[in-house]
């Protein structure tokens, strides 16, 4: 019973990390600047047409988020299945994942450079803008191909999913990450004029956001490497006994 309770409690900090990683992914230097052009392309009008209300970007943005969420959920299921296959080596898997996540964080902090993460493997959606299907396919392509921006964050969440045990919880972590990335995208489509103004104010701070993301990756990597997540889960159970009823 304690194992189930511990897994439930450990999911909370992991879910918080996944949500924060999704938001920071949206704010990353090579995602935030392309949001208005992406919205304009998917809607079939220029950025000026979006700002004037010529056509709404909400439905295309929704299908774009559904597309990238589809890929993330499949990744979550695959990572969870991989973790369950090697359940007897879970501690070793967590430590290995911790080392990888720390290296990804150091890449973001510019302490070291990983050449693979400096190359983009984008997939051409082969769809014209202005259709829901085109937006969905573009979301699939974005999730598969935008490795320099979302690859390290995804690697961190996939590591958490692989070391989390239960298939459902691993998949849920990727769903939460997709929400963190997708909800700001949808809000940008709904409030396009305010969003563009806010993005212009955020742009001078993109390097700081990138370093915050790197710091988060290093912290999570250390937690995986040292076993701090289970320790924190025990503390949660002792401090908030009602968590034992979750799951």
UniProtKB/TrEMBL annotation:
Keywords: Cytochrome c-type biogenesis, Membrane, Transmembrane, Transmembrane helix
Species per Swiss-Prot/TrEMBL record: Paracoccus kondratievae
Designated gene of the protein: ccdA
Membrane topology listed for this record: Multi-pass membrane protein
Name of one Pfam family that matches: DsbD_TM
A biological process term (GO) from this entry: cytochrome complex assembly
Major subcellular location class: membrane
UniProt-recorded name of the protein: Cytochrome C biogenesis protein CcdA
Stretches assigned to the Cytochrome C biogenesis protein transmembrane domain: 16-225
TM stretches of this protein: 12-35, 56-80, 92-112, 133-154, 174-192, 212-237
A GO CC annotation given for this chain: membrane
Family from the record: Belongs to the DsbD family.
Record InterPro entries: Cyt_c_assmbl_TM_dom (IPR003834), Cytochrome_c-biogenesis_DsbD (IPR051790)
Localization terms from the record: Membrane
């Amino acid at each position: 019973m304690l194992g189930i309770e511990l897994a439930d409690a450990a999911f909370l900090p992991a879910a918080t990390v996944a949500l924060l990683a999704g938001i920071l992914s949206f704010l990353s230097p090579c995602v935030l600047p392309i949001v208005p052009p992406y919205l304009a392309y998917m809607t079939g009008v220029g950025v000026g047409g979006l700002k004037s209300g010529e056509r709404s970007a909400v439905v295309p943005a929704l299908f774009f988020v559904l597309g990238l969420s589809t890929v993330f959920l499949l990744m979550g299921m695959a990572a969870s299945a991989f973790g369950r296959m090697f359940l007897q080596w879970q501690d070793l898997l967590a430590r290995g994942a911790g080392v990888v996540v720390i290296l990804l964080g150091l890449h973001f902090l510019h302490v070291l450079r990983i050449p693979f993460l400096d190359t983009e493997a984008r997939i051409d959606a082969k769809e014209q803008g202005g259709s829901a299907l085109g937006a969905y396919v573009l979301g699939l392509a974005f999730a598969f191909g935008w490795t320099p921006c979302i690859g390290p964050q995804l690697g961190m969440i996939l590591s958490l999913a692989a070391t989390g045990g239960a298939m459902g919880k691993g998949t849920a972590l990727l769903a939460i990450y997709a929400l963190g990335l997708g909800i700001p995208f949808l809000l940008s489509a709904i409030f396009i004029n305010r969003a563009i103004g806010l993005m212009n104010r955020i742009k001078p701070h993109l390097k700081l956001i990138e370093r915050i993301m790197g710091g988060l990756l290093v912290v999570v990597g250390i937690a995986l490497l040292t076993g701090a997540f289970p320790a924190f889960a025990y503390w949660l159970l002792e401090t908030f006994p009602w968590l034992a009823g979750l799951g």
